[in-house]
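Thread: Modeling a multi-component assembly for a lab meeting

Hi all, long-time lurker, first post. My supervisor asked me to bring a structural picture of a complex we are working on to next week's group meeting, and I have zero experience with this. I have the sequence lines for every component (468 residues in total). Could someone generate the structure of the whole assembly? Inputs are pasted exactly as I received them:
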Amino acid sequence: MGYEFDWSSIPGALPYLWTGMVMTLKITAVAVAAGIVWGTLLALMRMSGFKLLAWLAASYVNLFRSIPLVMVLLWFFLIVPSLLISLFDIPRSYDTRLVSAMVAFSLFEAAYYSEIIRAGIRSVSKGQMGAASALGMSYAQAMRLVILPQAFRNMVPLLLTQGIILFQDTSLVYVSSLADFFGVSYQVGSRDGRLVELLLFAGAVYFIISFSASLLVKHFQKRKTT
Amino acid sequence: MISIKNVSKHYGSFQVLADCSAEVKKGDVIVICGPSGSGKSTLIKCVNGLEPFQQGAIAVNGISVGDPKTNLSKLRAHVGMVFQNFELFPHMSVIDNLCIAQTKVLGRSRAEAVERARKLLDRVGLLVQADKFPGQLSGGQQQRVAIARALAMDPICMLFDEPTSALDPEMVNEVLDVMVGLAQEGMTMMVVTHEMGFARKVANRVIFMDEGRIVEDAPEEDFFSKPRSERAQQFLSKILHH
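Re: Modeling a multi-component assembly
Sure thing. I ran the full set together rather than chain by chain. Output:
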């Protein structure tokens, strides 16, 4: 006899699974927002005329793009908590895993976002900077009011696609046994001895969310080009 | 008002501008022409510091453009510039294109800026398009908006960098009409263009450039009737007799 599927443990676990999904979405949202802000700063540093700033930003990007994400996460789980505890006198019982995960993902994603944003800034014609300068705007004003709004508009599909990848990558927090959607599914599965069902279910949920999001991105893209 | 003294510029070993000198007085309308690659656009962009230059000096209203201590943004706020490709801000409506620098650079209130913008849009015949986006306008309309945007800053002089070169032929005149109007009101203008009809109508002087040099700088009537240099004669015969 082959394996007999038994999905009965899923309905009862749905509220618990939902708390995991909330955790996943929280990490994704924070990492996307912080990653874009820090990524924009990195891109501006890299494109600035200041050699030292440009070098620092380039080194940062190259470093984070050359290390596996799961190692960055692990380091942050091992190092950041003890650092925070010793620095801020936080009680040892305080759970810093979520904060560590958010910080690690933000720093890691910023490296990728900065490259997307740099390409986005380059996609705005050079004449726009000339026109803004000719009207008396400073470099910072021209960037903020003229170049970046256009760059972001061109980049929306790429930024969203990166966000979708990040959404899937958050499952890597299992290394810290943080209760994200994947972690929670795993827990329920091993508790009830129904790991195969739960992991299939989790996979289906990740697929449905990611795939619909990429369809949405495609739809946006099409509307922009027509 | 604008004084260009012995200006030279090179990219590596390539000489873009060689020892260019010219004086522009208040109310002058100067047309700069010459074959492509002769450095005319570069020269006009040096006047408001959009292009740096290595040697010589340019002063606008007594303020040195090349001096690193000069606040270039402040200077540019009062020197209008119109580009070949319009360079309107595509993510802003027409009215916002005219208001953004007024409020952010000159510090005018929004109401004040809008009032000035509407007056200028009316002047270039585009008040009804105020709430449209640049992409919804024709090339000629976009260029007229660009002129209005520059005028909204109350410039002391205007620089035009081939303002009609990117336009369909039937739209050239609507832009030239606006420029003629400005010239007749006494605006100081430096215009890089091949529109010799415009030059004949309103220019005081024509500067002819070739290979980065100012080959000829003559009053308008002299330039067309008896150009001194052979190079200018050739150029004129090519663009006038078709």
